[in-house]
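ok posting inputs for the flavin-adenine dinucleotide job
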Amino acid sequence: MAASSASHVAVIGAGIVGLAAALEIQRAGHRVVLIEPDEPGGRQSASYGNGCWLNPGAIMPISLPGLWRKVPGFLLDPTGPFVIRWRDLPRLAGWLLDFVLAGRNWQLVEACARTRFQLCKDAVGEHIALADEAGVPELIRREGLMYVYLDRSEFLAERVWRMRREFGVAFSEVGEAELRSMQPELGERYRFGARLDGGAYVVDPGAYCRALAELALRRGAERVTARATGFDFADGRLRAVLTEAGPVACDKAVIAAGIGSGELARQAGDRVPLISERGYNVVIPEPGFDIPCGLMPSDGLMGVVATRQGLRLAGQVELADVGAPPDWRRTEILLGFARQMFPKLKIDESRLDRWMGHRPSTPDGLPCIGVSSGSADVFHCFGHSHTGLIQAPSSGRLVAALVAGAAPPFDLAPFSAGRFR
Ligand SMILES: Cc1cc2nc3c(=O)[nH]c(=O)nc-3n(C[C@H](O)[C@H](O)[C@H](O)COP(=O)(O)OP(=O)(O)OC[C@H]3O[C@@H](n4cnc5c(N)ncnc54)[C@H](O)[C@@H]3O)c2cc1C
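and the output
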C-alpha cells in the first residue's frame, strides 16, 4: 500500500543487506531505487561467496579475551585461519587494537552476544519467508548445521554453547556412533558433533540475491547500474545520491554497500573504522558423496555446505588491503582441511572454482545501523562482517523502521556509528 507520506528511497548496494532493506522499505509503502554498479549478489559481493550458513546461534564476536596473545601468530604463521599481511599492518594497526580491546573481557563479549542475538534469533524464518515470496523456496535448506569436534571436551570448553543454551537456541549433541551413521565419509578424527537444529543454509547465495532483486523490481523498484560517489545535500536535507552516471533524485538514502560503505558514511558525517576481513571459498564439483547438513570442523573453522555448484568450503580471515591480489594458497588450506575431514573426497583440480571476497568488518563485531550524523535523511546499514547473511532480514527491518520514522523494536544504540567517536 502506498502511504501518502511515501518517500523515494535510494538503497546503495544490492548485496543481501541492501536487498533485504529494499524489500522492507517497499513493504512500508515507499518507492525504492537500487543503486548498484554490478549484478546484485554477483561475484564482487560478499553475499555471493559466503559460507551459506543461516546460523540462529551466530552470537559470538570474533574478538574474545586472550586474543592479543595470538596476534604474533597471525603475523608469523601464513597457514593459520587468521593472517595479517605485514605490509598492510601499519594501516590496519588501529583497527586491530580496537578489535582486540572490543573482546578484552567476558562482560563485553556477553553484551555483544546479546545484541547480536537480536539480529539472528528470528532470521531463519525470515529468510524462509523471503525465499518463498521471491519464488525460490528451494534455495534454503533446513537440514540444520553441525559443528564437528575431535572430542566432546572441545565442545564443552566453548563458552558459546552455554550462552546458546541460555538464549534458548536449540541444539543437540551427536555422539560418535550417530555421527558415523549420519556421515560415514567423515574422517575418524572427528568424534563428536553439536547440531544447531533450527539452523539452515542457502544452496546458492548469488541466485538468492538475484531472486530478491527481481522481487524488488517486480514490486516497482527502479535500478540504477552505477557506483554511488556521494550525496547532494541542501540545508542538511538530501536531494540526490551522486553516482558515476549522474545524480539520482531521492529524499532518503540507505548506505548498504558492504566494504564500499566506509567512504559513503564519511560523506554522511561518520568516520567508521570499516576494513575488509578478506575471506575465501573453493567449490568442489561432484565431491563423490552428499553431506546431511551444513558442517564446520573445529580445527578448520570453515563452513562446508552442499551447494548447487558442488561442495563449498568457505572461511579464512586475511587482514590485507582491499585491492591486494588474492592469495590462493588460502584455498589450498581449505582443501587441506577438507581432505582431512573427508579422506574419500574426490577433487578434480581442473574444475575447482576459487573465490575471494570482503567481509565488511567493524572492530566490535556489530554492524552500523542508524541515522547518519550528517543528515536525518541518510541511514547506515553495513558492517555485518562474518554474519551478514543471517543478519540481513532483521537489519533490513530495523533500517526500514528508521526510514519510516517508526520506533525500532529494540535499542539501536549499540549499532550507532557514533560509538566509534
Ligand atoms: C568467506 C566468507 C564466508 C562467510 N560466511 C557467512 C555465513 O556462512 N553466514 C553469514 O551469515 N555470513 C557469512 N559471511 C558474511 C556475509 O557474506 C557478509 O556479511 C554479507 O554478505 C555482507 O552483505 P552486504 O550486502 O553488506 O555486502 P556485499 O554482499 O559485499 O554487497 C555490497 C554491494 O554493494 C555494492 N557497492 C559497493 N560500493 C558501492 C557503491 N559505492 N555504490 C553502489 N554500490 C556499491 C557492491 O558491488 C556489492 O554488490 C561470510 C563472508 C565471507 C567472505
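notes: The chain is about 30% helix and 25% strand. The radius of gyration is 21 Å.
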